Amino acid sequence: MAGRVIDISQTLRPALPVWPGDTAFKLERTWHIEPGCPVNVSRLTLSTHSGAHADAPLHYDENGKTIDQVDPAIYVGRCFVFDVREARDAVRPEHFELSRAEGAERILFRTFESFPHDRWVSDYAAIAPETIDLLAASGAQLVGMDGPSLDPETSKTLDAHNAVRRAGMAILEGLVLDDIPQGHYELIAAPLKIEGADAAPVRALLREIG
């Protein structure tokens, strides 16, 4: 029997916290159900990095693939969630035992004690580049986290993103991992297929594995 499906996405809404200076989320009703119109239709304004999202290589590599060119299969399959809430400035190899994730090609990190749904947090724990290198050496194809970026907010060198680039891995950011016990799951989190985009929102799901 298939296990329980857990939604680990943020709810896209006008109050959604966004990266400082980025585009705020907006939903506008353009058509209304009324005489002569049988449907409601809306217009969305949002950043490609709104809520739970997948970074395309183009986001950190001028010659990288756009999100519609990335293989969606990488976002679906066996994953392992590590609880690394003890990490402060960055998640380093000493904060987790990679051997526990045997058989999982997708690694997710929970860093927040409680996900900040209603406020922007600048001092989140990033992912150290040596952690990315370790994951890549183990055969991991994807790294994800609950923070808004693998790198610190003030970083101009994007060391973690560039470690991902060198390894050819995929990235998920902005996941909600509260109440997710450390362990093995199936990840289902394909990004929207937006031509030419540097990222795209995802409806990220975990399925429990018995």
From TrEMBL:
Active site (record annotation): H59 (proton donor/acceptor)
UniProt keyword list: Hydrolase, Metal-binding, Tryptophan catabolism, Zinc
UniProt-annotated binding residues for Zn(2+) 2: D55, H161, E173
GO molecular function per UniProt: arylformamidase activity
Cofactor note text: Binds 2 zinc ions per subunit.
InterPro entries xref list: KFase/CYL, KFase_sf, Kynurenine_formamidase_bac
EC number: 3.5.1.9
Pathway: Amino-acid degradation; L-tryptophan degradation via kynurenine pathway; L-kynurenine from L-tryptophan: step 2/2
Reactions catalysed according to its record: N-formyl-L-kynurenine + H2O = L-kynurenine + formate + H(+)
Top-level taxon of the source organism: Bacteria
Chain residues that bind substrate: W19
Cofactor(s) needed by this chain: Zn(2+)
Positions bound to Zn(2+) 1: H49, H53, D55, E173
Keyword Zinc: yes
Stated family: Belongs to the Cyclase 1 superfamily. KynB family.
NCBIfam families (alphabetical): trp_arylform
Purpose: Catalyzes the hydrolysis of N-formyl-L-kynurenine to L-kynurenine, the second step in the kynurenine pathway of tryptophan degradation.
Subunit structure: Homodimer.
Name of protein: Kynurenine formamidase
Organism name: Hyphobacterium lacteum
Gene from which the chain derives: kynB
